[in-house]
Amino acid sequence: MSVSWSLVIHGGAGRITRDVLTPEQDAGARAGLDAALTAGSAVLAEGGTALDAVEAAVRVLEDDPHFNAGRGACFTQEGRNELDAAIMDGRDRRAGSVAGVTRTRNPVSLARKVMTASPHVLLAGSGADRFSAEQGLEQVDPSWFHTDERRRQLDELLSAGADAFDSDMKYGTVGAVACDTQGHVAAATSTGGVTGKRW
After folding, report:
1. Does residue 19 contact residue 190 with C-beta atoms inside 8 Å?
2. How far is CA 56 from the centre of its chain?
3. CA 127, 128, 129, 130 torsion: positive or negative?
4. Which of 15, 36, 106, 110 could bridge across to 57 with cysteines, CB 3.0–4.6 Å?
5. How far apart are CA 2 and CA 93, in angstroms?
6. What is the pLDDT of residues 100-118, one digit of tens each?
7. What is the pLDDT of residues 138-193, one digit of tens each?
8. Residue 6 belongs to what H/E stretch?
9. Which of 147, 173, 189, 191 is the catalytic position?
10. Is 22 part of the annotated catalytic residue set?
11. Is 184 exposed, middle or buried (0-12, 13-18, 19+ CB in 10 A)?
C-alpha cells in the first residue's frame, strides 16, 4: 500500500475575475500559489506533519503582496493593516488564532504559538503583538505590510464617502488544508480583512 498525502490551498475569497487583474498580477498570484504548494508539499513529501505543511504554505502567501494576508493586507478605516490568522490541528482539535496584530511578519506562526505556548485560543491587538515579541517571532515595522494597491483601494473608498468596504475590492483571505501520511488533518488561514474595516 502506498503512503499518500494531500494539500489544498486557496489564495482568496470574494470575487476575483480576470478582467480586474492585469496579466502581471495574474502571473504573480499564480507564481505565489505555486510557491505555497511547493513549500507545503515539500513538508508532506518528507513525511512531515499536516500542521507544519499548512503553516509553511500560508507563510509563503503571507509574504507575497499579491494576496490579502500579511504583506499586501487591506487597510482599515484608520489607514492601518491589522492582521488575523488561525490554525487548527485535527489530531487533538487544538486551535490558535490572532486578531488585529500589527507587527508579526507571519501571523499564522503567531496563531500556532497561541495554540502551543499559551492556554488560550485567541489573542488580539496589542496583547497579541506583545505575546509575539515574547515568543521571539519575527517582528517588522507596520509599513512592511503596506502596498500601493491596497492604499489606493482605501483612498478610493474614503473619497467616495463610503462607510463600508466595497465587496468588489475584497481580494481575499488565504488558507491551506492538509492531510499527512499518518492521516492527520490540519488547516490554517490568514487575512488582512476587508478594505475600510472598523475596529
Report:
1. no
2. 11
3. positive
4. 36
5. 27
6. 999 999 999 999 999 999 9
7. 999 999 999 999 999 899 989 988 766 655 544 458 999 999 999 999 999 999 99
8. strand 6-10
9. 173
10. no
11. middle
